[in-house]
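hiii so my PI (J.) wants the whole complex modelled not just the main chain, which honestly fair. so below is everything: three entries, each one labled with what it is. i double checked the lines twice but i was tired so who knows lol
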Amino acid sequence: MLGADRRSGIEQQEARLAWRLILPAFVTILLVALFPLLWTLWESLHLHDLRMPWLGKPFIGGDNYIEAFRDPRFWSSLGHTGFFAVTSVGLELIIGLGLALALNRAFRGRGLVRAAVLIPWAIPTVVSALLWRFMFEGESGIVNTVLVSLGVLREPVVWFIQPVAAWVPVILADVWKTTPFVALLLLAGLQNIDASLYEAARIDGASAWRQFRHVTLPLLKPAILVALIFRTLDAFRVFDLIYALTGGGPGTSTEPIALYTFNALLQNLQFGYGSALSIIVFVVTFSLAILYIRFLGAELTGAKR
Amino acid sequence: MSMRKWWPTLVLALLVVGSAFPLYWAVLASFTPEARLFQAPSLLPRELVLEHYRALFTERNFWIPIRNSLIVAGTTTAFCVTIGALCAYALARLQFRGKVVLLGFILAVGMFPQISVVSPLYLLLRSLHLINTYPGLVLPYLTFAMPLTVWLMVGFFRQLPAELEEAAMVDGASRFRAFREVIIPLALPGIATTAILTFVYSWNEFLFALSFTLGPDRQTVPVAIALFRGMYQVPWGQILAATVVATAPVTLLVLAFQRRIVQGLTAGAVKG
Amino acid sequence: MALVRLEGVGKTYPNGHVAAKGLDLEIRDGEFMVLVGPSGCGKSTALRMIAGLETPTVGRILIGDKDVTALPPQERDIAMVFQTYALYPHMTVRQNLAFGLRMRGAAQDVIDRRVDEAARALALEPVMARKPAQLSGGQRQRVALGRAIVREPKVFLFDEPLSNLDAKLRVETRAELARLHRRLAATVVYVTHDQEEAMTLGSRVAVMRDGFLQQVAPPMELYRRPANLFVAGFVGSPGMNFLPGEVMPAATRKVGATLGIRPHDVAIVPRGAGDLDAWVDVVEPRGSELLVYLRLGTSGDGPELRVVAPPEPAIEAEQVVAVRFDQGRLHWFEGESGKRVG
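here's the output for the full assembly
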C-alpha cells in the first residue's frame, strides 16, 4: 500500500512543472502544424476547386490520389526532385568533405574562412537564386563570357531556354549555398576524431589514403549521415530556389514536386487535388526521415558503444 | 612533404573566392549603370553609379519590405525563444513520462514540408481575416520556428552541469526560481545563438510570405525581390541592389556572431 | 535524541532497480554518520532521500520531529555539499555563499555577517570577488563548504566531497572537516566509498551493500567485531584474510565456517613455533613494516595469507616459515550467510 502511494514528493513536483512549461509550445505546435496537416489530409479526400465553387466540396475518397498517379506532370516533377536531390546532395557531400578536411588542417585564417563560408548559407534562398540567375542570364552574363573566352563553349548558351542546360545553374546555386553547412557539420565530426588514432595508424605504416579510408571515414559516418538526412530532406522540399531561378521552366522541365503542388493549390486553386499532392510530398519526406533515423539511430548507438 | 602543407590553403583560397564571387559580382553590378550590365562585363568596376539604389528607395519604397521583414522576423523570434526556452528546459532537465515521445514529435513537426500545410493555413488565415497582415505571417512562421528553437535550446540546456538545480533547491530555491536565477544566466549564450538562427531563418523564409501576403505593403524582403517587375524588361540593376540591401543585415549578423552560429548549427545537428 | 530518522525506507525505480531497502537508521544530534560501501550500494540514494532530491517508495524520513518524506528540499532544514561542488559559475564567491540566505529572504545584514564569518573560517577572504572558474580545486571545495555553513542548517549532507581532490589535499581536507565538525557541533551525514575516510571521520559508520545496511557501529567496533564477511573484508587495510575453517586444528575450528584473521593479527615465527606452516611468496618492504604474502602449507599452492610484519627480522621469499594467529582476534563467519558466529 505504502509503496504504491503517490506522494507529492519532488518527482511529482517536477513532472507537474514540466508539463506547465511545455504546454504553451506544445499547444502552439499542435495548432499551427499538426492541425493544418490533418486538415490537408481531410481536404485531399474531397473535390475542392475554388475556381468552381458551385461544385461544392463532395467527398471523393482516394480519387485525387488516383488522378495524381495518372498525372504525367506529377511523375516528372517527382523525377526532377529526385534527380535534384541526388545530384546536389552528392556534390555537396563530396565537396563538403574536401572542404572539411582542408579546414581541419589549416591553421590560419579559420575565422575568415568560416565567415566567407557562412554568408551564402545566411542569405535568403531567393536572393542567391537571383544572383546565379544574373550570372547565367542572357548571352553576355559572366558565365557565358568566361566560358566562351576560355574556349570551353564555342558560342554562348542560353541556359534557361533549354530543359537540360537549365539544371546547371540550379544545381550550382544549391551547391554554392549549402555546401558550407555540410562542410561545417563534417568539420565538427572530424574534430571529434581522436588524433592518437591517426598516430597509431601512421606507426602501423598506413598511407594518407589508407588512414582516410580506415580511420576517418568510419568515424565520420555519424556526421555524414546527419548531413545526409538534413540535406536530402531539404532537397526534397526544394521550392524557393527553383521558383526564383527558373520558375520551374522552361515549361515545366525543372519543376520539383513542391512547386507543382504550389501551382496546383494557389494558382490553379485546386485545393482538393493540391492537398493530395501535399500529402504525397509529406509521406515521401517523412518516410525518408524515418528511414534515415533508423539508420542513423543504429549508427549512433552502435558507435557509442 | 611540402604538398601536404599548401594544399589546404589552396583549397581554402578557392573556397573563399568561390563563395565570395557571386556576391562580389552582384555588388559590382548593383553599382553599374543599367545599360552596361550585359555588355562586355569586366571583373573590375569601370563606372560606378547610385541610380539603382536611389530608385530602390524612392520609386520602389524598399523600406517597406525591410520594415515588414524586421517586424515579422523579430516577433517570431521573440515569441519562439521565450516559449521555446520554457519547453526546452523541461525537455532537457526535468524527468517526466513521455519525454522521448514529445521530443520526437517536435522534431518530426520540424520536418514537415511547408507545402503540405500551406493550403489549410491559407484557408484558416482567410477565415480569420489575417491574410496580408503581420499576425498572418508570424502564426505560420511558428510551424518551423518553434521546433527549431526548442531543438536548439534543448541542446544548450543539456550542456549545463547536472547538479546546479539540485544545489539551488537545497539552498532554498523553488524549481522555477532555480531556473530563473541559475539556469537562464548560464544558458544566455545558447539562447542568444538560438535567437540569431531563428531570426535568420525567419528573415529568409519565402513560401509562406509569398502565399499569405497580397501586396507590397506587407510583403517581406525575399518576396519583394522575387516579384520585382519592370515595365519592359527585368530591372536587374535594382534587383541586385535590393539583394545587396537584403543581405546586408544577415551578413553583419553572421560576421559578428560566426562562432556562435557555427556552434549552434553543428551542436544541434551532430548531437543528433 | 535522534535528529534524523529513517524508518523502513526503500527506493525502487520504475525500471525495477532496487536502490535501497529496509533502511532503519538513526542519526543523533551532533553525530558524524558516515555511509560507506562500494559503488551501487545505495549510499548516495539514501543521502539524496534525506536531502529530498529523491522520494522513497516506502518508509518515512524524519528530521527533528517532522515527517519530511513528502517535502521538497527547500522545506527541509538541510545543506548539501555535492561531489562536483555544483558552484554557481556565473556568481562570485560572495554571491555563491549568499545565495541560500537570499532565497530564504534573510535580511541583508544577516547575510553579510554570516558570509563574512564563513569566509574567515575557511580562509576565503582573498577570493570573495572571484568566480568559481578562477579558483583552485581546494578553494572550490571550501566555497561549497561555506555555502552549507552559512545556512546554519539542522543537518549537513556530504556526497563524496573529497573524491575530486588529489591524495595529499584529501588528507589535509579530511582533518579540516573533522575540526569543523567539532567546532560547529554539527550533525553530519557523509557518504564515501573510501573505507579509510569512513573510519577516520565517522563517529558511527553505516556500511551498505546492494541497498541494504550491513552494520551500523562506531569505527572500532566495525574493525574488531564485524557483523558479517562483507563488513570484515571491507573495513581495514590491508584487508582481512579469509581461510577455510579446515585449516585450523580440530579443537578450535567451527564446522562449515570461514575463518577471518587480520594481517596485523598474525605473526611470522620460525618453523615449529607457530600454528601452521606457510610458504613465503612475496615480501613488500614498506618502510615501517613488511607486507608478506604467504601460502599456507609447504608446497606453495595453499590458500593465500597476507601478514603485516615488523621490518626486523628480515624475511626472505621462497622459504617455509610458520605463522601464529592471535587467538583473541579470530573471526568466524557462517558459511552461507556470512554472518558472524564467533
